[in-house]
Amino acid sequence: xxxxxxxxxxxxxxxxxxxxxxxxxxxxxxxxxxxxxxxxxxxxxxxxxxxxxxxxxxxxxxxxxxxxxxxxxxxxxxxxxxxxxxxxxxxxxxxxxxxxxxxxxxxxxxxxxxxxxxxxxxxxxxxxxxxxxxxxxxxxxxxxxxxxxxxxxxxxxxxxxxxxxxxxxxxxxxxxxxxxxxxxxxxxxxxxxxxxxxxxxxxxxxxxxxxxxxxxxxxxxxxxxxxxxxxxxxxxxxxxxxxxxxxxxxxxxxxxxxxxxxxxxxxxxxxxxxxxxxxxxxxxxxxxxxxxxxxxxxxxxxxxxxxxxxxxxxxxxxxxxxxxxxxxxxxxxxxxxxxxxxxxxxxxxxxxxxxxxxxxxxxxxxxxxxxxxxxxxxxxxxxxxxxxxxxxxxxxxxxxxxxxxxxxxxxxxxxxxxxxxxxxxxxxxxxxxxxxxxxxxxxxxxxxxxxxxxxxxxxxxxxxxxxxxxxxxxxxxxxxxxxxxxxxxxxxxxxxxxxxxxxxxxxxxxxxxxxxxxxxxxxxxxxxxxxxxxxxxxxxxxxx
Amino acid sequence: xxxxxxxxxxxxxxxxxxxxxxxxxxxxxxxxxxxxxxxxxxxxxxxxxxxxxxxxxxxxxxxxxxxxxxxxxxxxxxxxxxxxxxxxxxxxxxxxxxxxxxxxxxxxxxxxxxxxxxxxxxxxxxxxxxxxxxxxxxxxxxxxxxxxxxxxxxxxxxxxxxxxxxxxxxxxxxxxxxxxxxxxxxxxxxxxxxxxxxxxxxxxxxxxxxxxxxxxxxxxxxxxxxxxxxxxxxxxxxxxxxxxxxxxxxxxxxxxxxxxxxxxxxxxxxxxxxxxxxxxxxxxxxxxxxxxxxxxxxxxxxxxxxxxxxxxxxxxxxxxxxxxxxxxxxxxxxxxxxxxxxxxxxxxxxxxxxxxxxxxxxxxxxxxxxxxxxxxx
Lengths: 544, 377
Description:
The complex is a heterodimer of chains A (544) and B (377).
Chain A: E1 2-12, E2 17-26, E3 29-31, E4 41-44, E5 49-52, E6 54-56, H1 64-72, H2 96-105, E7 108-116, H3 121-129, E8 135-142, H4 146-153, H5 158-172, E9 176-180, H6 184-189, H7 208-221, E10 229-231, H8 241-250, E11 256-258, E12 266-267, E13 275-276, H9 278-287, E14 291-294, E15 301-307, H10 310-315, E16 325-330, E17 333-342, H11 347-362, E18 369-370, H12 384-392, H13 394-401, H14 406-409, H15 423-438, E19 454-457, H16 463-468, E20 472-475, E21 478-482, E22 485-486, E23 494-498, H17 503-517, H18 528-531, E24 537-541
Parallel strand pairs in A: 1-4, 1-5, 6-7, 7-8, 8-9, 8-23, 9-10, 10-11, 11-14, 14-18, 23-24
Antiparallel strand pairs in A: 1-2, 2-3, 5-19, 12-13, 15-17, 16-17, 19-20, 20-21, 21-22
Chain B: E1 11-13, E2 16-18, H1 20-33, E3 37-43, H2 46-59, E4 62-63, H3 68-80, E5 82-86, H4 88-94, E6 97-101, H5 105-108, H6 112-117, E7 131-135, E8 151-153, H7 162-172, H8 184-195, E9 199-205, H9 211-224, E10 229-235, H10 241-252, E11 258-262, E12 264-267, H11 274-279, E13 285-290, E14 304-309, E15 321-324, E16 334-338, E17 343-347, H12 358-368
């Protein structure tokens, strides 16, 4: 199948391209204009904008934690507007089936579920297998597990920690490793109620800093395509900018990704002892070239926070709206599910909203700042179009600002920021840079040899509408969306790193689970046949 | 008269041996003619549950599970208040105080003594004697197969009634109580033990507790966490109840007792309960699934009945259609919820056979439905 997309404005920052031109798709690949060939289908895309399919690096879309939230909140996901029943379960409000369709309709073709406990890897992959159209991946969580902390405590050396990382990636079929409040989740089980970067985990005698450094190095040494993905300590607390600054400064020469930095951009100034410290963070980021961040933008409305930072979620349980929550002390890990409603009239929520936008606008390099709402923690991913509009148009931003309490706006710099993102910068932040960060060389761009994941938008005065309903979306060269609606149903794959696994580590882990828990270690293994779709996985090469 | 078919027969229509193809076609015909189909029992592995929900969507049916009533009682607390939860593994290595509540614990978790009660607690790596307290249902209560120390408290005093649990919760908070059936000093002794835990875990089976009792236990644990750490381990329902619940959650957003009659999934724990649907004759056709060998329901049936079960399952009246299915983890590889890990795990067939899987049979039935129902997940 040869498709010729004619006359679109092609925005492809990875290949430094922003021009009106043609795209040729042969089967699932972008190809050079074939000389003399006749296309099976020619698409007149004049007046439209073509980008690579969007890539979301951090969105809680699947797994046991998300499912707990679904079951906790039946009132939040009654089917909304009735839709034509073109796709299975398309009237289920908050299902995996709907998730895949909604992402595709916005032109996103790859999404990373960033927080899966090793024990729940199979569950997460089963949900991802039921998430249609898009490709997906998981990050598996380490950094609070007894086995890993013991490796660090007992000084068994970098190679043992690296092998543990490799084993975890391979067993759970993960694309990368995430750490959530390193040591803090384990400390909470010992009744510790606050935990910072240089605090010591009871019994293990190691600090959060030591855990982060050890895993940052180990992930690098294991050759994983994605650097360590870190959820810092002290999320959400006034004055926590110091924690973030300390963490950024600790990164050194190795790459480190900090998740949802907005939640760490708080000072203690102002009438309520809560203020934006985004300028300080942005300044640090503008010099820390090895560090990448995603924003975790807050938008107003009802949502639910789903976080493996149990310590933080426990502390936040009193703010639950509606008043219910689940706090889970999990295996080597945990999760807290706390529903929450961000209100435009709330001083705190308004500051959070501003901090996110300040980070977007004050960090210079769109290759190192990633577009997320930490779905659903800051806002559901369906709010992305509104956020694109705010980034690209300062007048839209001003309208939002006008809704906020003046005293909240006063402790931020947002009104003074005039920057407007270009389409090319949007494409960098949501396509080119994520592909680079995740180690996916044939995604995020439209050059020859790229996978034919293409989003074609109809530009207009309403930027949000442009990004809400893609004119056409191709996934692996198949047309899946037309005019903002799914037209073809298919299933993508889960991308995972394929590291070398040391037999000695497999033996050690087997022995550990057998003696300590009376369980075979392979109960965490995610195998093809268990997931139950043809070709559910796609391996991504590791450097080692 | 009881009816069963021989182990060698793959399927039957009105008791007469039939091919699976013909039985599936007959089942599809019954479903297509039904005004309100019900998929019940739902003792199936993950893939079977997926197929059941997909079929329910196609025929506008209701999805229900044999143990929904108990599952809903635990779910009520999650949906209406705050809960603290932990896993069998964390409880095993960490719990220094285990508060057992009520009956049915070993039935719900056969590994209870072996895996939780017997091993020492290991906070800080050192072996610590685990203190086990049982709010027991009866004076002569005993945990089969467990020879260790269990402090049986308030047996015969209705220890697991909401009123007594409320009194215990009040004493944990230091509030005065009057009129509790458990004497004050005994109540205070339990409260002190719970408050003295470093990481306590309360264990129960919702099959043997009421919703109010469960809500009170969750409140008790919430209160304990103001000062120390305490969590809960509600034991999973049988027949892969927790696994089916998970699948319902990700496919529809809702638990079981969800119907597709209006196109969109609609969840109503009262309206879509199987017993009520049958007693009120609101359903006229049931697909009853039991791949784990659960006994058949005792519903009086003036309705069409399609059974996916073992060949040896005995019905008072032979189903209109019976298709024999394999047992997950015995006849075929499967994914199910494991009470040992509290997660979904893959299990290998222990005696692989050609008996079809629930999902295969349901998909075959689906394939026989008309074009009107052509979509599938």
